[in-house]
Amino acid sequence: MISTSHKELKAWVEEVAALCKPDSVHLCDGSEEEYQSMLQIMVDAGLGVQLNQEKRPGCYLFRSHPSDVARVENRTFIASKNAEDAPSPDVWIEPEELKATMRKSYDGCMRGRIMYVIPFSMGPIGSPISKIGVEISDSPYVVFNMKIMTRIGTKVLETLGSDGEFVKCLHSVGKPLAAGEKDTAWPCAPSIDDKYISHFPEERMIWSFGSGYGGNALLGKKCFALRIAAVQARDEGWLAEHMLILKLTDPSGKVYYVCGAFPSACGKTNLAMLEPSFPGWKVETIGDDIAWMKFGADGRLYAINPEAGFFGVAPGTSMHSNPNAMRSIEKNTIFTNVGLTDDGDVWWEGIGTEPPEHLIDWQGNDWTPASGKLAAHANARFTVPAAQCPVMGDEWEDPAGVPISAILVGGRRENTIPLVNESLDWNHGVFLGSIMGSEITTAAITDDVGQVRRDPFAMLPFFGYNKGDYLQHWLSIGKKTDACKLPKIYFVNWFRKNADNKFIWPGFGENSRVLKWIVERISGTGKAVETPIGNLPTADAIDTSGLDISNDAMAELLQVDKEAWLIEVASIKENYKSYGKALPKELEEQLEALEKRLS
Length: 599
Ligand code: GTP
Ligand code: SPV
Ligand code: MN
Fold this sequence. Notes:
The chain is 26% helix and 22% strand. The chain is α+β, with helices and mostly antiparallel strands. Strands 11, 12, 13, 14, 15, 16, 24, 25 and 28 form a nine-stranded mixed β-sheet that branches. Strands 1, 4, 5, 6, 7, 8, 9 and 10 form an eight-stranded mixed β-sheet that branches. A five-stranded mixed β-sheet has the order 2-3-18-23-17. The chain has 15 helices and 30 strands. The site of guanosine-5'-triphosphate has 20 residues, from helix 8 and strand 17. Manganese (II) ion is lined by residues 242, 264, 289.
């Protein structure tokens, strides 16, 4: 069936083929020819659109089914053997029960389709930090997105050898074709209840069914590099995190590497590629979504970006907000769910150009500015090779990783949380990571609008095991080396609003002003005041030269409102109850100490 000396892989592929019953099996070699020919087949069949090759060479547009536009958190399951090992009771299903249910769905699900076998490496091929997976999928869209987002093909198979370890990733869009049935542009399982994004952590295995979009289907990303890798990281003493990695060079040439955990759509890609506002300072990108961090021989934490591409949010991306992303996507990019202009280019809300008089929207319908609908879906994305980003740091593929000096954590908070707050020590930093989150701004799911949804280290949707044990693991990492070798943890918030409901801080490139203060703190020159919540910049410590922002606004951004913080403490207490007995006692102590300092 497929030619490999790896018996376990061969047996697994045969087992899956027998169950899913595809018309044929294709082992992906990862070559450029394979990639181009698959794209061409899709375009010829009318399942994708080739963009204007003068304006966007090598670029294609795909439109998903309106029911399949984002990760499905309420259909994501962690099937650990014991229920207590799952992040929370609502995501747990007994593994054998879940497999039995899903086997019924998988039975014959690839009829009329090709089953692709995609060997992939998370991290540079052959690096000691990298890990190998094999994704089986019936979606050609998945194949060419995996080709961009990871390293795929024959080389990976060679590295795997005849007995190498790999994560089994099974994916089907869940839409078999009857004989002669014409495919739809975006096949997927019709109902949300038919979709499953399942993880079997003890077996290092992923079963995904029914969705073709993003993290549901590109299984190297959230499913493997976060949920399964987090379990491997816990067992092996490292960290698999939802973090960007950036390189910051100061005017004297001194280099700092910084990681940042912000929830989905809260600014990782933007920060990773930012253009600093100061002459002499430089930011370069190492990664924009996921960091794997391990201790080096010198006792410092080193991070690698396990991915090879960016799957970035399109709406809001412009030459003003993220010029380096705009330059990255000029060619060889897959766009999903953006608007298509009459001259074969892309357009989305917040792209920074006037809306065209007419375009085809993300659902394939005629659109004009008067139609009152979005041209691009809010979660429309671009998939682009990282190597195309003009500010990639030279070391982004260094198998040794980069030594991390600071870790930022933060969500979207309209009030209470200051622009930046330096943790007092590692445990206090982990505490800050545990309390981060965003106000709920949509009434679509719950009626808790305005309530804070706590999202520890931006991992709430991505925990692979019990969330209390996860925080305990972070605390244990702090005991593995000398305190002075650990990165300093900073709680940041670009999203504070004023009485007129406007962001007070300009954000984007101006966030470099906060990065500057952070590295000044690390090098010992940055000025700070001790407050009950942590160390904040003194009134003049953030360089605002050339920035049109009032002293009052800066004061508001750096204010510690004790009343508001006492309400915060009460809300954290409530949230901590959800951990049950898995809540680390160090964090309970941190919360008590904070309350004492406030009163
Ligand atoms: P995922 O890919 O979903 O993990 O998202 P991400 O964390 O990479 O978020 P991204 O950088 O794509 O930003 C998402 C949204 O946040 C966009 O609409 C941005 O315009 C907005 N955003 C990013 N940075 C800032 C900022 O500093 N200030 C403000 N106000 N908005 C920002
Ligand atoms: C996120 O939601 O955090 C993403 C997009 O980065 S996805 O790959 O779909 O998970
Ligand atoms: Mn993400």
